[in-house]
């Protein structure tokens, strides 16, 4: 029993059919618990007031925006090395989710920044990096849409994803160098002393779990869709030939 | 039931509203597309099975 | 390989080859900016480094889709793929030709345009130096983008969308080195980073671009 068994589309379809409802329900439960807890049952921060509640959307979305790209990078590599179609299609399926996550992080950040920093947008390193990440997602999705042959599209987007990752890291460094920011440092880490206060910590954990589960459920769902539409294309092509 | 959000009520509710709207539309779009493709494939396979 | 380079240069300088288009575009952009922001010398001097860098970058972008398009259409790219020289070398030659046709003229023309924008004295050396260091990276990254989109019918717009985010680090370090040079600050770090990006890009991207072309020709 190895991981590579799931590279078989049929096996993947069977397993994901079983798993998908669990992930979907768990994601919904975690998100509802985390967001309701965060929105209704936490007190306001003494400095930031009620805006601290935005953290329950902002932080998980930002985490998933980056994690989605990492997942695309890994699946792209798997596709380039081992030529498993499921892997390439999973990367394709993940990109729009990452795009939406980046958008959420940017929007909630702007709404949060307005009362805290007095401006919707500053050219702060973190904000700018996310804007660049957003552009990378757009380019990646556009390339998938533009190339007609699915295997060619998978190859080209994989290469773009690899090169893009290098440049994304480079941009992150460059932007850091270019401007020191207003954004606070990471507020979550394993080092307990620097963490946000416990009261905010627990609901935040639920929200993060919810976002991760939602991401997994959506990737499964969208990959299933992609596999099916590939199958439709294959059948159509065969009918046209026959 | 609505908690007192103080002077930042607009910002907080806007952030929640926009994010939940985006997430819901993503889920809905993924789901409807999945359903459409699933039905399409089922039709296609039925047609093929009938002909064979 | 040298024959290929000469052929590319000849094609570019021929009538309708697009040579000079980038220069004209660069000129127009720099002329338009004062109309947009007003003629105050102090303001223009303040934004001159950024405007010149962005203008050069956009001018570079303009001619990217021509790098492989003509060769792809008339089939000579297929011939090059079966030629004894490796595809990586072809890519490097193409990027070099693009740089000689756009990057070098842009670099040489930039001081003249700097006068129009009231670039402070002492900045001209830095302007030429940063552009000379940065434009090879722009050409190489652009060649990679062109290789990705070579088989597409309407690749031009997509090419810009793919390439512009990749230009961000080069632009930041280039403009930063120039601005710091103007203010007589220490600009060794951005200059070194700019050079590092250029050399790194030249070392790595030919492989990615050649792989993309092979995929597109399949």
Automatic annotation (TrEMBL), chain A:
It is a multi-pass membrane protein. Keywords: Cell inner membrane, Cell membrane, Cytochrome c-type biogenesis, Membrane, Transmembrane, Transmembrane helix, Transport. The chain crosses the membrane at residues 20-42, 54-81, 93-113, 125-144, 156-175, 200-221. It is found in: Cell inner membrane; Membrane. InterPro entries: Cyt_c_assembly (IPR002541), Cyt_c_biogenesis_CcmC (IPR003557), Cyt_c_biogenesis_CcsA/CcmC (IPR045062). Residues 5-183 form the Cytochrome c assembly protein domain. It holds the Pfam family Cytochrom_C_asm. Its main location: membrane. Belongs to the CcmC/CycZ/HelC family. Required for the export of heme to the periplasm for the biogenesis of c-type cytochromes. PANTHER family: CYTOCHROME B_B6 PROTEIN-RELATED, HEME EXPORTER PROTEIN C. This is Heme exporter protein C. It comes from Pseudohalocynthiibacter aestuariivivens. The gene is ccmC.
TrEMBL record, chain C:
It is found in: Cell inner membrane. Its main location: membrane. Pfam families: CcmB (PF03379). The chain crosses the membrane at residues 12-37, 43-64, 96-117, 123-150, 157-179, 191-213. It is a multi-pass membrane protein. It comes from the Bacteria. Keywords: Cell inner membrane, Cell membrane, Cytochrome c-type biogenesis, Membrane, Transmembrane, Transmembrane helix, Transport. Required for the export of heme to the periplasm for the biogenesis of c-type cytochromes. Belongs to the CcmB/CycW/HelB family. NCBIfam families: ccmB. PANTHER family: CYTOCHROME C BIOGENESIS B-RELATED, HEME EXPORTER PROTEIN B. This is Heme exporter protein B. It comes from Pseudohalocynthiibacter aestuariivivens. The lineage of its organism: Bacteria, Pseudomonadati, Pseudomonadota, Alphaproteobacteria, Rhodobacterales. The gene is ccmB.
């Amino acid at each position: 029993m190895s991981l590579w068994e799931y590279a078989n589309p049929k096996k993947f379809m069977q397993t994901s059919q079983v798993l998908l409802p669990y992930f979907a329900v768990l994601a919904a439960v975690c998100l509802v618990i985390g967001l309701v807890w965060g929105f209704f049952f936490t007190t306001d921060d003494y400095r930031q007031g009620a805006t601290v509640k935005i953290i329950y959307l902002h932080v998980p979305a930002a985490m998933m925006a980056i994690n989605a790209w990492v997942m695309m990078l890994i699946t792209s590599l798997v596709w380039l090395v081992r030529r498993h179609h499921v892997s390439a299609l999973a990367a394709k399926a993940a990109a729009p989710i990452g795009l939406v996550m980046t958008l959420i992080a940017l929007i909630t950040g702007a709404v949060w920044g307005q009362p805290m920093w007095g401006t919707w947008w500053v050219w702060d390193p973190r904000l700018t990096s996310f804007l660049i990440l957003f552009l990378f997602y757009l380019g990646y999705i556009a390339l998938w849409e533009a190339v007609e042959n699915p295997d060619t599209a998978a190859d080209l987007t994989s290469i773009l994803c690899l090169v893009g990752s290098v440049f994304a890291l480079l941009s992150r460094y460059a932007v850091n160098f270019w401007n020191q920011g207003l954004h606070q440092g990471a507020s979550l880490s394993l080092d307990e002393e620097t963490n946000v206060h416990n009261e905010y910590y627990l609901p935040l954990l639920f929200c993060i779990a919810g976002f991760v589960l939602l991401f997994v459920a959506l990737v499964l769902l969208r990959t299933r869709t992609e596999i099916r539409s590939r199958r439709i294309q294959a059948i159509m092509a065969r009918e046209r030939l026959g | 039931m609505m908690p007192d959000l103080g002077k930042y009520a607009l910002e907080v509710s806007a952030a929640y509203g926009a994010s939940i709207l985006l997430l819901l539309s993503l889920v809905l779009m993924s789901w409807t597309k999945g359903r459409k493709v699933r039905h399409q494939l089922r039709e296609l396979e039925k047609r093929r099975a009938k002909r064979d | 390989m040298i024959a290929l380079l000469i052929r590319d240069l000849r094609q570019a300088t021929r009538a309708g080859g697009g040579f000079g288009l980038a220069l004209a575009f660069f000129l127009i952009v720099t002329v338009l900016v004062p109309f947009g922001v007003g003629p105050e010398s102090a303001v223009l001097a303040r934004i001159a480094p950024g405007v010149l860098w962005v203008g050069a970058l956009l001018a570079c972008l303009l001619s990217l889709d021509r790098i492989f398009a003509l060769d792809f259409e008339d089939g000579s790219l297929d011939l090059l793929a079966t030629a004894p020289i490796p595809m990586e070398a072809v890519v490097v030659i193409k990027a070099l030709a693009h740089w000689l046709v756009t990057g070098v003229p842009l670099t040489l023309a930039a001081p003249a345009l700097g006068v129009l924008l009231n670039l402070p004295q002492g900045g001209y050396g830095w302007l030429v130096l940063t552009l000379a260091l940065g434009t090879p990276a722009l050409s190489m990254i652009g060649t990679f983008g062109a290789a990705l989109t070579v088989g597409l019918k309407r690749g031009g717009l997509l090419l810009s969308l793919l390439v512009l985010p990749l230009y961000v680090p080069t632009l930041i370090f280039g403009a930063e080195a120039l601005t710091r040079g103007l203010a007589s600050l220490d600009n060794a770090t951005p200059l070194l980073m700019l050079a590092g990006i250029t050399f790194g890009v030249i070392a790595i991207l030919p492989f990615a671009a050649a792989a993309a072309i092979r995929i597109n020709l399949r």
